[in-house]
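To assess whether the prediction recovers the assembly geometry, we first specified each molecular entity separately, as shown.
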Amino acid sequence: MNIDEIFDFTSFTIDREPHIVLDPQVCVDCDNRGCVNSCPARCYTWSEEEKKMTFVHDGCLECGTCYVVCHRNAFTRWRYPRGGFGVAYRMT
Amino acid sequence: MSKMYQAIVVGAGPAGSSAALTMARAGLDVALVERGSFPGEKNMFGGVLHRLPALEEVFPDFWTRAPLERHIIKKGVTFMTGDSSFNTTIEAGNFDRPPYNGYTVFRPRFDSWLAEEAVKAGATLITRATVENVVLRNDRVAGVTILDRQGEINAPVVVAADGVLSFTAKKAGLRQPTFDPAQMAVGVKALIDMPREVIDERFGLVRDQGFANEFVGCTGGVRGGGFLYTNYDSLSVGLVFHLASLRTSGKTPYDLLNDFLEQPQVAKMVRGGRLQEYSAHLIPEGGYNMIPELVGDGILVTGDAAALCNATGLNLEGINLASQSGVLAGKAVVAAHEKGDFSRRGLQEYRRLMNDSYVIKDLKLYRKAPHMLHNDRIYNEYPELVCSVMEYIYRIEGAPKENLSKLFLKTAREKVGLANLAADAFSAWRAL
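The predicted structure of the complete assembly is given in tokenized form:
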């Protein structure tokens, strides 16, 4: 299995507005950044050169992992997407 | 626009739809609010649905009408290392006769169907509606508001069935404001397409028979386990990780899933299959100690929202507990309507019904299991111990064999340590 492909098999209706918003400064000071490896959808990327956390909401599986592993509460918003948006499972 | 109902259920999963169905059948005007474009769109689970005694009571022909896949006749446990595995399976004649003990199902289909049954009984299903807040009147929950929609949906009582993070319970002040990663697990799953005949041949199945297998030692040292379940013409294969352990491991769920699928014995089981869908979700695994306040003024909490999930290490039960709690919440709301009392006291009937049910009793009985499962040796050393002892027993080398009990003790001393072995056996005995 090509691991990069697994994310392409799930369907999404992407909202323009993200349902999760970070305060990036909190992530800069974080000693853990467990979100980066724990997120099953690879939504969080930490750049060591730029000292910057990037979050992309497009492929979010709405599983809740980041909400629980973030011990610094970096979220200025964490909610589920508006009705009709986000991940759409067909047969899981 | 505001609308008044006799009860609101937040979330059309197994707990919510069971609650809505129970109330609608008793003649209440119920709103069933769901954030997906259809019920089940947002829901995933490992794949095995156990018996649902509470629903069978309200719904005697449940099992002949629900959209189910295969019934489980064979259950297995595999102790696994990077290239070996030791399996035990139980296949029982009783598992092949109705009432069947469990089925594989697809949530988008199953949850849609159950919600539709609630609608047939008279409930109003409102989809594409993400609840934003609870409406409070005189410190009592009296309705909900919907994200990006005007107005309120009002009712004297709200049933929170909005899943593991339950923002509804949080906003009503019933659940803890933050979660402990040690009480949570995340499951990831690959749905793999495979022709029905191939599945029947490969796993030794006929007719509608199904196979469910759990794995230990397949999570790269992270606390957790694996599963493989057969649907009619697909396999559900996945891993579950304890979040605290995953977080500190630095490993990723998808790389570990890939390693699992490429482990030589698993690779043979999934060979030729095509990936169809990848999904993930949190599981509340804290057991009895994690259960929040179940009843507040004008509100009841059910299913995953109430952390009703029993993870004993061998079985992982959730949907059955969810639907049972939903039915009991429904009954308590019906009783509250008869008395006209929706205060915390008026809704205590739910707490009483729950305490008398297998839901709370089982969670209480296994309340030490979550602690026992927080032991790294279970996920690394023990599978290695089992595999290496079994391998030795069967290996022919032309040299005299060692006495088996001596061999076991020697290997156990090397891999685990005898004091640890004794302590773990004691802790498992106490927990189970």
